[in-house]
Protein: NDH-dependent cyclic electron flow 5
Amino acid sequence: MASSSIFTPRLTPAPSKSKSLVSFFSLLPTSRPVKYKRDFPVAKVASIPYEPINQEYLEKEFSGHGVTFEGIGESCVAKMEVENGSTASLMMPSGLITSYKALMWHQGTVELLHTSVLEAEDEDDAIIQGGISLPLTFATDDGKDSWSPTTWSLHNVRGSPTRSIKIEMISNDSEGKIRLKHIVTLEQDILSSELIVSNSTSSPLQMFGGVMSHLTVSSPDAIYALGLEGSNFFDKRPIDTEFVITPPRYGDTSQPGYGQVYGKMTLQALASTLGALDQNNSDVAQYRSNDSESEDEEEGEEDDSYKQLTDEMCRIYTCAPRVFTILDRGKRNSVTVGRDGFEELYLMSPGSVHEFYSRYAYVLVGQTAMLKPITIAPGDEWKGGLYIHNPNL
Structure:
């Protein structure tokens, strides 16, 4: 089951786990069974179970700024809405931003984020993926200690529907020496996700990961990335985190229809492709294991200023503009994506061998520190994040 809406009373987020990585890619699993939930290896600092969120307390304490709260099981959804009708929703305590509906030129609102809901083994729960997430890991120079934020608590709500609304969340390590503040801001034409990291330890802190945003599209075949010409990149395999969506057969060139566009496929090839993608293939895990050793890390330079994202791809641009545009010709709209603080741009497309408007109708744009970590000196504070600008008003 897949859906772009998460507002049903049965849904709760997948349980979070602490994660660790000294080198972001070197510690990714080389083999795994076919699962929708993806995790990094477990960190030394264990997760602290969280108490169910008190919706009535949040409404009493933080209402009056254009934010409403809806309880969903042991979680809570905070919905922000500005006066022109644009809205954004995020879940606590996971901190996952699940929706950004922006006002368009035709005076209707359009969902710009891609979120998928899957039934968990427990029928009363669900696994929620996509949206905007923060897969982050912090490590000391020697790599002996590492910590990842798994739960967020609401710290403050500011602003008003007439201008902008800010929701501040915080997450601390068990010793209180690493403090993260995540600020989600909704304006009439912008949604931003800002991260503030404070290092109170006595040694430098290395930060890996970044901010990952799933942008919903009609089909990757109709998507173009504008403004990346001349940018240096490395081809990489997709990252695995609990909130990132990745086709289970990504990179399998033997699958029917690989690298083809639906419009160029015969009906027989199309039926074969859909059948192959829908079934649970027992050999996927073995394929992942064999392919991981031959991971393509080819370095290159982008030669297309109007790059179509039809083909399956995953790249980390090490030298790219801080602002570029994603154009969807199928939906006749575009978004401008910008970054601050992070030096790397992560761009992943699942390709166009999937059904239109399906679970894989998205492109993943990340502002990251995956090839080279960001170092935060003792006592220092670092700021960074991403914003999505809607130019379609």
Residues 267-278 form the longest helix (12 residues). The CA atoms of residues 38 and 242 lie 4 Å apart. The radius of gyration is 20 Å.
